[in-house]
Protein 1
Amino acid sequence: MQNSLLNKYSGAVPRYTSYPTAPHFHEAIDCGKYAQWLQAITAKERVSLYLHIPYCDRLCWFCACHTKHTLKYEPISIYLESLKKEIATVGALVSRDAAVTAVHFGGGSPTMLRPDDMIDLMASLRAAFRFADDVEISVEMDPNDLDEPRYDALAAIGMTRASLGVQDFHPEVQKAINRIQTFEQTKSVVDAVRARGVHSVNCDILYGLPHQTETTVAETVKDILSLAPDRIALFGYAHVPWMKKHQTMIKEEVLPGLEERFAQMNLAASMLVEAGYEPVGIDHFALPTDSMAIAVREGRLRRNFQGYTDDAAEALIGLGASSIGQLPQGYVQNMPATGEYQRMADAGSLPVVRGIEVSDDDRLRRRVIEEIMCRFAFSFADLRSEFGNAVDAIVAEARAFAQSNQDRICLIEDDRFVITEAGRPFARTIAAVFDSYLASGKGRHSIAV
């Protein structure tokens, strides 16, 4: 039965870190519209900042992020000057009464930055925005970049959460994805950041990688558990060589098949739960004391372009090439091409090139999809209290899908649409039922499991 469901519901669908999804962004949303949205941020609204560093000193072949390889620091120095100009331009439009409650450095490899550049970049942010006293500062880390001066600089900027990509510790798997990273390296990072007061450590594990087996996955999970990270993300490798050409370096014949991927996922998940981690959405796990696990229990879990989060900010401002922002009015994306981004930022312009303004129907469907992705259910009554009679169409769609579905992956229970345990691995596929854009979209997506 499980394999039957797997073959039926594991098609290619969006990851739903936004709705509408990025393939539906368009050029009608420009810097003028974005400036209006930024100026509309009020003192009551919380702000989250995402900074993109699109450089790596090695290119991992599995990666689907917007980044480029460089062995020279000069391009990074030039990029940082442009990034600081964008920070100043955006900051001048946002009310100083609005508090920044979270900052996330992503990439690429933010830890490639020299220590003085890390400190200077944070100074630029604090000069442009008002930070809350309890601001969370998270950084994506590559152990191969790090040394004592960088650790000290990260402590100096106030890093509170460290996120490490691990993927798989098996040498054959690492060689196949061009990501050599030993357990000892990883442990040294965890020890170093904890010694400097970081209160939360996240580790990413991938399944579905070339040459990966249930044995290598189990060994990696066991090693990660010995580090006792606060959070663990368990992602399926997204093989999208039509979008990321470097993924053609991975031979498809050594990728696990669909059933093997599913078995790897289930094995890793069961090991994490047995070790005391609580499931968070479709692909995260957290210790019961972690703020994300608490957010799940309190019904506050959210989903945005960074994945699952307990960040309650009403506005997410993206800074840097290709960054995506989410504001109450809609979404915006910066110029992806680094050189053109720098030209726009250096000219004092907002480097936005596309986006989408959300309609009332978009907001309703976004709420439904987020509820499915975060809580595996949504209440008709709760939706009606917020959206009124507009919910009737969603209720009809939910009832029709549940009634027509013979596999019992979802049902209607006490005026709620509920995904069953059997259906939870296919939450993305179920969420797609409520996506009014999907049929007309041109984007290609990774498989749902």
Protein 2
Amino acid sequence: MQNDPLSLDEIVRLVDAKSPDFCALSDRIWAMPELAFEEHRSVSEQIEMLKREGFRITKNVGGLATAFLAEYGTGGPVIGILGEYDALPTLSQVSGALEHTPITRGEAGHGCGHNLLGAGSALAAAALKDALAAHDISGTVRYYGCPAEEAGGGKTYMTRAGVFDDLDVALCWHPHVVNEVHSTSSLAAIGVYFRFRGRATHAAASPHMGRSALDAVELMNVGVNYMREHMPSDARVHYAVTNTGGDAPNVVQAYAESIYSVRSPHLSDAQQLLERVKKIAHGAALMTETSVEVQIAGGSANVMPNRVLQEIMVENMRRIGPPAFEEADYSFAKKLRELTLSDEEALASIAPRDASLKSAILHDGVLALPLREEVEMGTTDVGDVSWVVPTAQCHTACYAVGTAFHTWQMVTQGKLPAAHKGMILAAHTLAATAADCLRNPAIITRAKAELKDRIGSQTYICPIPPGVRPEDLRKKPA
């Protein structure tokens, strides 16, 4: 096996040789946080890096301006490695600060670690490419640059367009506070705008002439709150009022808008629950003599786990070992924990995993695959990919235990050495798992058979209808 160009030792060596450049790429993207479907500079940085690595680039994949494909090799198997790079609003933060210190107040920040995610996945693809190139091994490695995971479901649009249909395997990862292979399913989610239109008038002189769109938004919310008692306990409905119709109380609001996220462990159940929410919206419109427009704003299917790939992936992570954190890494994480993170937050960050981890500062082990599959109370557009191709995902420890996603504490750690170490472990794990699939096509055969068995008689129906495009959602209503 020592002469095996796809051996674990060789893959680790190839990743390590390239990791300084890709850590620098991650840091550059951290410094240019861009929101969903607006990641133009981040995409340019990734494309230039992968061009230099010898990949063929395809832009505007799936009709999305900030989605792209980097490909190397010919023939099968075809291995896809998924990357992301979008940031979150209002999370601007100075790197390494131990208190909330925005670089620019109100601006975006990488509060979910997608700077690391994209760079780490690209690093894995580049290392695997080198193994194929050096030894003329048949197979194709693809890096998918995927936008808008946080708000919009970039991979959902890409799945709808068929860009993953010819893959044999899809692999991905996410920065986390633990080292593990992600074995759970997720909640399917559908995002929907409800836009009410009424009639403006003077609120004091002629109130009887007005029809308040804001009243309709509020009545809809009341109705949905009453519905919560009569829906499955593992479903979720969240909302935000995105337009109140203005700041003047003496004008009856002619336009108001809210957005709802409807979630359930199964996409079909989320779609049924959405129909009930729509009925409440139409009821609110009837009560207020307004009209309502319903527009899908995004969506994601639930994840289809694949135990075959998970077992290969966790064995690779176990053999590679956890990140080699240094004293400086532990010291910073301990200070951050003491100053800004509570014991309750530490427990929440590792739930439902081993509760003893709540006393850890940085996770320096590798968790075993749970025997029982659970449903995680979150959503990812990786779910859509997992319905059409066998998919596996790992998490690696890039942050202090207790760090919550979508917080300034995550941003402040996002370009520190500990985060880089977690990213490199992810690249090792992804590249090694891909190499195993290339070396042993029987793994792919078994993974595909498992996916077929899990889906059974179900049919994947994209939660974003064919006519909906991201650019439509950014248009302001007339």
Protein 3
Amino acid sequence: MSLDYDLVIIGNTNQAFFAASEAIKFNARVALVLGNIHDDSWQEIDSLIFNYLTYIERHWHNLKNWYLNINLDSWLDFNQLQKWSNEVKKDIKATNNLESLANLGVDIIEESGEFCRLPKLGFVLKNRTLRSRRYLLATGAIYNIPQIQGLTEVGYITPERLDIDQLPNRLVILSQTSLGIELAQQLNRLGKEITLIFDNSNILPLEDPDIIQLIQAILETEGIKLLMNCPITQVREIEGTKWIQAGNEAIETDEIIIADKIKQQTQGLNLEGVRVKIEADKIQINNKLQTTNPSIYVCGQTISSYNLSNLACYEASIAVKNAILYPIFKVNYNLSPMRMLTNPMFSQVGLTETQAKRDYKKDLIIVRQNYKSLVKAKMLDETTGFCKLITRRNGIILGCGIIGNQSEETINLIALAIQNKVKIQKISQLFPPYGTTSEILFQISQKWQTQKPPKNTFINNCLETLLFWRRKWNK
């Protein structure tokens, strides 16, 4: 039986569109099945817009308190904000439209379907079955609602259903992910009373202690109540008020927001019927992004506590190459930068300090530079934060973590250096414009030079002798 396609992509997400555009570059016959599964691509855009507006709100109040004599509590008009947000989304959608993919040769199928195993593997639509050499799942993600006594009866909301203008004042956020931290800070800056509850003792289990301590201190300084090691046992409503039993504490709140771990949308796809194994709401894959059925690949899996579109598109690029060519390409998340939408923003690439010490023992130089050394940080009153660079003793960069203004832009330079094996000595030869955030990389590279081990004592001794005699000769 002949095949209809080289690759069938299932999903209505940014990573699905990106995968289709990448696959067509190999002159492959590609189908994109949109289905009726919810597109979650706007969630990250909403978070970005929300983060930007709360950032501007803070600076507006600084100007009001320090420099301007005006009587205005807030300039945020939520009706205008929603209108502007929709316009931004409309413009973004125009750049990712299906018409451009169709013009490239991708078959766009606006139907839903499911996998079938017999007589051969295929994807069954209403009136036909798609046969392909390989398949790629690029569906979106949904929140995993914890099983808590009384939660369903009392009610809750998830981030994609937030109506900021209608939110009550007292909010409890249940989260084990970075999104809960982002949301807590953003809502707090809009005047909400926030309690953020974690089951464990660490708000970011995969990050270094100094990163965690600073982020936690920022949240608590801004008035967010953090409850650690407080598993929630039950939720009740008493006289119109919601009560949460978390550990030994009973918390009264107006609304509950669930921003817990997320899982990939797989409902209605019959994955179990084609021998795709799912454990703990997660599709089992190898480092080539193959499922337990080697003809089916996955991208957009939730990585640790981060769910970022750049990681999903990186996975899509690896999965497409493996599906179209041959499965030899492996994912390496150390090469992809990540960021968390806090203020100041946290960004990370490569190994953490903990991982580097485990893998490289004493063959390390770790340099840290505070943001208060930057002219731009002082001008913007954003001196909280630091940049931590992790290298081997020969200058090879292993990782970087930054908390501070525009860290999401600076981290890209370090990611590029790691990917191309550019040593820190090269960064010290760059002289960024005065008053820019990237000055911190120059400063940290200069600081690294003072900590590196002596490379050649003979040359240093010769240079010292030469300078000594030159001073003598000039007398």
Protein 4
Amino acid sequence: MGYLIMAGQLFLSLSILIVLHEMGHFFPARWFKTRVEKFYLFFDPWFSLFKIKKGETEYGIGWLPLGGYVKISGMIDESMDREQMAGPPQPWEFRSKPAWQRLIIMLGGVTVNFILGFFLYGMVLWTWGEEFLPTQNVKYGIAVSKLGEDMGLRDGDQVLAVNGRQLTEFGDNQVRREIVINNAKSLEIERDGQKMTLPIDPKFVQVLSSYASKDEGLYGVRMPFVIGRIAPKTPAADADFKLKDRIIGVNGQPTAYYHEFSKMVVPLKNKAIKVTVLRNQKDTVIVPVTTTAEGKIGVASYEPAYYFKIERKDYTLGQALPAGVVKGVAFLGDQVKAFGQMFKGKIKASESLGGFASIATMFGDVWDWERFWRMTAVLSLILAFMNLLPIPALDGGHVMFLLYEIVSGRKPSDKFMEYATIVGFIIVIGLVLFANGLDIFRIFK
């Protein structure tokens, strides 16, 4: 069921983005009295799932979900309509329009995607606001993963800054970003009451950007284990556990914090264990219980808000919209820097790229509207950015040739544009196959 939810979210998100992107081409074309022959969601080689003709335009849904398109009369595109281009230019055709009008038509799609991405970021802030755990409120320090240990972090550390940039909000996302995108060289931490600088090995740029590390954090919040939920029909439900019991040990070994309990119990699959709990903040009780085949007993801790003061920032509409632009611009800046890191060889394309399966997992296996719209904003900006790349067959390729025409006063020949579009189309299909091939390889690896 989880896979269906992820696929459904991806399908809906891409459908929205594709339709709006193509509208960005469609409406300027119509404003400049350019004929639009087709408007399609998804591609329709050989046949379409649905089509209807209104006026001079055929609207439809294709069966190949790799994008969408509008077919504009007199424009050399992936349709390769040589017969139409062989005739003399007609007043309603794209090739008959002034270069500035053609430029606006070609920029329409990415313009819509940029605006939509900024707008959705703003709407998410306006609707849901932001909740965060201030770094100064993390009184027990961090719980470190194996990856964090390799970097030199230890349980109980306080991470204060990365490369001199203070971390006011708790979490490792900012640390990962600074290392991967900005080549951060050091972390400022507090350990056992002493502040110190922890150097970062340059190898972690590739390590943190690799597919194998994408779901492994550097650290999380270290917190006690006070039982907030006992799942029915589990070993814990039949044992003598109570809500608000604080788990402090397993088999005589102290486990002061949640992650310590997990590390100790997960390997003990189908084992009888003795859990020490502190009840009513004064009584120590030993609770016998048998773990499941997954190394669990069926209890869950309270959320971090039970242990720490969480802060919240709400936005008015007037505050949310500019804040959305700021977040969107920062995201685009990171994409540009990430491309730079790839060209420098610091990030491996084969490790950091992914296809539709990788994108789908980013939506999560539970339908969460806040996450859905945030991901749709991200994908809208990525779609705009990728379409602006100067590759023939993409909007950026057409824009590149139009700018050349405007500056030089010379229009590339139709034959040149035809060959360039073929080459560009092959490049784009190759990239799509490469990215999705990586997903397939990872599944069977």
